[in-house]
């Protein structure tokens, strides 16, 4: 009778709600208790203030019954709906079936609470980039809060930073437990019961920047958003015979820019993994674009990944690219920064399918976990859902970032995806 909690952490991405839905429903179907942690690791640290601790204080809901095969008489929390309150500021407005969630960050949920969540954008349970969880004290409090609720398994959906946090948490777990016991905060029995924390990671990130997996949850939707925006821009660019420089997200990864370039027929793209020669890229770009214009093209689209660099590791800025196009080619040029429109909104089909399949796998990985097995990251490789050791994936992702910062782009690309590189 495992108690499985799920949290979303770091930048939100489309499909995170589908992850929560899949984990909650799979956990309940397999006879486990399902819990959510609000506001990412921050919620773990805040926990449930005394007096609000027990979910029994939430009345039995009256929502539509669950399917017959799901036996869980204790599945009492229904109609989970978060309001618009400032959740991190202990404000009002956050509700659970009409009951306030104030002071409660670790909440047991039922089958109906996540109904329809696969179609919702962002993350309904909240996310944060927690600074307190980065400290030992923060993680100690987080461990205590989990033990107080009797939770023994945690599914974390986030990017590489969030999964690194998960990895640190698990590897420190024995020390955290020992410290809590020394401080008299947990009993001998709790030490035994919670000797191991089971952790699984799912990659939610629009950047598609994680090693050892082909696709991260949210990346396909963000790519769709970019394509829609470029389609919109195309028509106005065509009308005026203009050039547009589009800045797209992706932090240190050029996947969104590269794929959008292919999907929308961009004239030129800049990505961090392939920095152009600092002394000649302006000539090269102008030559290419002039060539396209000479061939009769009425519009020009240049995509700049937000982390794009030149060979001297100087950032390539959309405004600067615009100036080059205007001044050297005389093109009427505008800059559009797509910003967070790329991150929000309804998930596309792929960002419902992937988290659903991965959510099921994540619960299975938790159920099969032993003290000897590593914590897994659930990935996808050649269309198959995979489990890879979380530590390896995180380490390799960090090595990619390191290689990029050392200008070793070949190494970066081969670490990220050896086969693609070939
Ligand atoms: O990692 C996701 C991401 O959207 C990046 O593409 C971007 O650099 C960053 O998050 C933006 O972060 P914030 O939402 O905190 O501005």
TrEMBL record:
Regulation (activators, inhibitors) = Allosterically activated by ADP, AMP, or fructose 2,6-bisphosphate, and allosterically inhibited by ATP or citrate.
Superkingdom, according to UniProt?
Eukaryota
Q: Which residues form the active site?
A: 207
Region entry N-terminal catalytic PFK domain 1, spans: 1-422
Where does the chain bind ATP?
Answer: 11, 129-130, 159-162
User: Could you tell me what reaction this enzyme catalyses?
Assistant: beta-D-fructose 6-phosphate + ATP = beta-D-fructose 1,6-bisphosphate + ADP + H(+)
- Cofactors required: Mg(2+)
Q: Could you say which enzyme class this protein belongs to?
A: transferase
Which molecular-function annotation in GO is an example for this chain? ATP binding
Query: Where's the Phosphofructokinase domain?
Result: 3-51, 106-366
Biological process (GO), any one: canonical glycolysis
**EC number, UniProt record:** 2.7.1.11
Could you tell me where this protein is found in the cell? Cytoplasm
Q: Which UniProt keywords apply?
A: Allosteric enzyme, ATP-binding, Cytoplasm, Glycolysis, Kinase, Magnesium, Metal-binding, Nucleotide-binding, Transferase
Primary residence: cytoplasm
Where is Mg(2+) bound in this sequence? 160
Name its pathway: Carbohydrate degradation; glycolysis; D-glyceraldehyde 3-phosphate and glycerone phosphate from D-glucose: step 3/4
Kindly state one GO CC term assigned in the UniProt record. Answer: 6-phosphofructokinase complex
Binding annotation for substrate: 205-207, 242, 249-251, 306, 334, 340-343
Q: Where is this region: Disordered?
A: 47-69
Per the similarity annotation, which family is this?
Belongs to the phosphofructokinase type A (PFKA) family. ATP-dependent PFK group I subfamily. Eukaryotic two domain clade "E" sub-subfamily. Belongs to the phosphofructokinase type A (PFKA) family. ATP-dependent PFK group I subfamily. Eukaryotic two domain clade 'E' sub-subfamily.
Q: What does this protein do?
A: Catalyzes the phosphorylation of D-fructose 6-phosphate to fructose 1,6-bisphosphate by ATP, the first committing step of glycolysis.
Q: How does it assemble?
A: Homotetramer.
What protein name is recorded for this chain? Answer: ATP-dependent 6-phosphofructokinase
Source species of the chain: Trametes pubescens (White-rot fungus)
Organism ancestry = Eukaryota, Fungi, Dikarya, Basidiomycota, Agaricomycotina
